[in-house]
Write a structure and sequence with these properties.
The chain is of the alpha/beta class. It is built from four helices and five strands. It has a five-stranded mixed sheet.
Length: 140
């Protein structure tokens, strides 16, 4: 068994921060959000940017937003900011949502994002299947 790669910035340990993060078996991140309040967003932004700054290879991230009922404009703006960081080109991102409205909001981000390695899913198995594809098959 191999040791998990350490985090470059401390994960949230304050119960008022509405997300948790663990390492995926492939070395990427698995985020689970319960809210998108400002403290959550600001902590996540710092966490995500710290990891992007150290990104030196292709990685796969899964964002589970199924417990989030709505996305604020600030959440969408910060997601676009982080997603358009130059280091994000090395990150394939799958986002799980529970409603067509949430998918539509994130599809807007996908449409204006500079990245082609971002997809929205409602089925966890579909998200994992897409994440598992070789990076040479990034775009369908």
């Amino acid at each position: 068994m191999t040791d998990q790669k350490p985090f470059n910035f401390p994960p949230p340990d304050d119960p008022s921060i509405g997300y948790s993060v663990t390492r995926r078996p492939d070395g990427g991140m698995h985020y689970v959000f319960t809210d998108t309040e400002r403290p959550t967003l600001l902590h996540w932004r710092e966490f995500a940017l710290a990891h992007l700054a150290a990104a030196d290879h292709n990685t796969r991230n899964l964002y589970d937003l199924r417990q989030v009922r709505r996305l604020t404009q600030e959440a969408l703006r910060l997601a676009l900011e982080v997603g358009n960081d130059p280091a994000a080109r090395n990150v394939r991102t799958a986002v799980l949502v529970s409603s067509p409205e949430m998918a539509a909001a994130l599809d807007e981000i996908s449409a204006i994002s500079e990245r082609g390695n971002f997809r929205v899913f409602t089925d966890p198995e579909d998200a994992e299947e897409w994440l598992a594809q070789p990076f040479s098959r990034l775009l369908k």
